[in-house]
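Revision sheet: structure tokens.
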Amino acid sequence: MTWDIRMRTNMFRRLPVEQATGRLYGGRHRLRVVYRTRDLVVLGLGVMIGSGIFKIAGEQAAGTAGPAVLVSFLIAGFVCLLAALAYAELSSIIPVAGSAYSFSYVAFGEVWAWVVGWALLMELLLAASVLARVWSLYATQALHDFGVAVPSWLGDLIGQEKGPDLFAFGILLLLVLMLATGSRLGLRTLWFMVMAKVVVIGLVIVVALTYFEPGNLTPLVPPAQPAPEDGRTVLDALLGALGGGTPHVFGVWGVLAAAPAIAFAYIGFDLIATASEETDDAPRKVPRGIITALVSAVVLYAAVAVAFVAMVGMDGLARLDRGGLLLAAAFDAAGSGAMARIVDVGAVLALTTVTLVLLISLTRVIFSMSRDGLLPRPLAGMSRYRVPSRATLLAGGAAIVMSQTVDVLTLEQLVVLGTLFAFLFVAAAVPTLRRARPDLHRPFRVPAAHLTAAVTMAAIGWLMLNLNVRTWVYFAVWMLVGLLLYLVYGRRKSELKLLLDAPPADRPVLDAPPPGPPGRPAGLPPGVEPLDGPPPVGPPVGQPLSAPPPPRPPVPAPESPYPTGRYSMRRPDAPRPRDPRRTSPDPPADGEREEPPHPGGRHRR
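Predicted:
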């Protein structure tokens, strides 16, 4: 039992894969299955294609990369694709709602899971607040462009960059209430809005190509120029300290420097993993959804970038008003006012879908962390709508308060840093679990996992260094507050700690891990290193000392800890079909597990 004591007192205790995925079946904290593969793709496009598609190409072309911004889009897309491969493999192993948080809990241990989860909470909460503000700005602009008269008393309460804003408050409240009363309504709404904005993007590309001028794409890489001081990044500071150089825009360096800002546009494919518990056959469908959604988003962004820059050129970009949607201003300048109005509508729809998916994902991360006891356990409770309504109301309430009280538009880069921080852990988790648990069934496998993980972490680290110094300071403060909160609350209330603290006879018997590699005691949980000396003598952990040795049935050990058909999740109210050839009693009801006994004689009922 010495290893047991070490696990209880160790902040680096790891959650066994069997315990993490076992919560999918039975119990009060089970999410409803609502997503299919195409729903996951729509979920990803809903969050990846926001208003940025109508302005980010123009911003980065005009101020950083020139017409070579297309190359910047491809570089950022390649880095995100590497991270997406890691998410795909881990989602196929650990199909749970916590995404990067749950992956880190299994691969690295509890304290690292908390750190990643805390970063995700910051990212999603801040992103929802930022986008609600931007939604208000663009909705107000759309009303103005369509000639809708706004009363003077209302004009000071909408379209504000900081302070109270009725539009930002209203859109968040509407979406939160929609999600708190059942995700099916939210999914139908998401489908409609995503399809509408894809149609708008198609129209934008077709009309912009009618103004295509090949000369606007030359020179592809403009000569390098000194960068403004207010945009100084961590990488700029390091290079300046080491070599006394000056950061530049345009040129080759500008093409590379534009990639981190563009990567912000692609962020969102990782949120598909938070829907794993709500997806039928998640280990196969979630990886498909992640990769399909990301590749689709890269193609759409690159197409808009080429059409936009070729339509106006560098001289035209310099004359455009940077205060609103650059693409709408470009169509106005080209004499196509109708397309400018369509862009306004597309931007409002796009921001609505992004905010909706962000709130869904924020809710699922809170749900998963509270289910593990690192946040208050009642937040994991399910409402009569079979959704985590408490977590939804908490997430939505926090986003509303933040959007109305904090100048969130100045903190946009924090969203990028929090996401890239989680990407680092996910990339590192792939080779870690390959070494620690080679026995796990992996429906999706990253090719050349160790090399791919090393390249992914290097690329993500480079993107993180291209964020400004002030963002890093804010991030460090947030993480310090989170670590203190974990030490005060999460470390003591952890469900894994409470499970290990329970007397062996009272513990729920988990799936026994398969035999370890040579030289490792059989039955030792993943993440626990064997102590010096011979292994303890006695019955396996989780069995009373007084129990007689169980007989060994003549059944071979399963090749993986997952029973056959485990990932096929039916609706709880659907009856299990009965085989007419079966003569034994009816199989267990949905929510219970039927699996072959382990050679050690233990099984879960």
